[in-house]
Design goal:
Elements lengths: L1 H14 L5 E3 L2 E3 L5 E3 L6 E3 L2 H10 L5 E6 L16 E4 L2 E2 L1 H6 L4 E4 L4 H9 L4 E3 L6 H14 L3 H25 L3 E9 L2 E3 L5 H8 L2 E3 L13 H7 L3 E4 L6 H7 L7 H4 L3 E3 L2 H5 L5 H17 L2
Helix pairs in contact: 5-6, 6-12
Length: 298
């Protein structure tokens, strides 16, 4: 019986591991963390995606602290540097967080350690990882609209975001079967993103066949033989890849692909495609626009 109860609990936690859910006047996030469904006025956002979403909702006046990142800035770039910092997303300062007296701290799935520490201090914590899928981003818009007293703004942002998703799906239906490619995590070794990742979902929603499908791992290694066999006509660099030359020079076999021959190698800002805020759909539209422009110029 005890094993059965544990199994049921694991199932319940698994259901809540992909998005936020309102139930019994509470909001449930990942790993069973939950908070009361009410208005929150002093928020510390450890996840940059939360910061961006709050600004999109016009709820930035609720932010009392944020955590920064080593690699990228947080939008809006002219305003977030002025916010109080509680350290880095990978290692926020617990004492600083407590001193700001937040009534809510929002973290992602990478910060479960700090979430448990804060819970022992009786500080409400919500764990929400919007990098799971696009639906989790939409769910967050609705929930944040509720708890930041921005319900009307939340409904508007939700509708605008859903429309962008629908438009991108139309692109997929038109382009399906014509493009094959990958978004690169690194050039040496050459590694891509699997289909379950946000970059993988980005490829799917604009109709690009992800050539890493079938390879092992969330960051599959792409061998020269595999690259030539799949012959991508679209290659997109992310992370620390700064230019098309970085990709071509790191692997001589890239020059033999249709992507290189047709100059269809693109670079995207990692923060835009790996950060689960509604702004990701603007980045997808921009990326597709570049691809379309390149193809039409030939």
């Amino acid at each position: 019986m005890k094993k059965l109860i544990v199994f049921i609990c694991m199932l319940v936690l698994g259901v809540n591991s992909f998005s936020l859910e309102i139930k019994d006047n509470k909001i449930y996030g990942e790993k069973g963390y939950n908070i009361q469904l009410k208005e929150y006025k002093r928020v510390i956002a450890i996840d940059p995606a939360v910061v961006e979403t709050m600004y999109l909702l016009g709820a930035e006046d609720r932010i009392v602290g944020i955590a920064g990142t080593n690699r990228s800035k947080i939008w809006p770039y002219d305003k977030t540097p002025k916010l109080t910092s509680v350290g880095n997303t990978s290692k926020p300062n617990i004492e600083k967080i407590i001193s700001l007296e937040p009534d809510l701290v929002i973290v992602n799935g990478m910060s479960l350690g700090i979430a448990e520490t804060l819970r022992t201090k009786s500080i409400p914590v919500l764990v929400n990882d919007t990098t799971k899928n696009f639906d989790s981003i939409l769910d967050s818009i609705k929930i944040y609209g509720e708890i930041f007293n921005k319900k009307v703004e939340g409904e508007k942002l939700y509708a605008e975001t859903q429309k962008k998703i629908d438009n991108l799906k139309e692109i997929k239906s038109l382009k399906k079967g014509t493009m094959r490619g990958m978004i690169l995590y690194s050039t040496s070794p050459m590694m891509g993103f699997d289909a379950k990742s946000l970059p993988g979902q980005i490829l799917d929603i604009i109709g690009i066949e992800n050539i890493t499908v079938g390879l092992k791992g969330s960051r599959p290694i792409i061998s020269p033989e595999y690259l030539l066999a799949k012959n991508p006509n679209i290659i997109i660099g992310a992370m620390s890849i700064n230019s098309a030359d970085d990709i071509v020079n790191a692997n001589p076999f890239v020059k033999e692909t249709d992507a290189a021959k047709n100059k269809s190698i693109f670079i995207v800002d990692s923060a835009k495609i790996l950060r689960g805020s509604p702004r990701i759909f603007d980045a997808i539209e921009e990326l597709y626009g570049e691809i379309e422009k390149c193809q039409n110029s030939k």
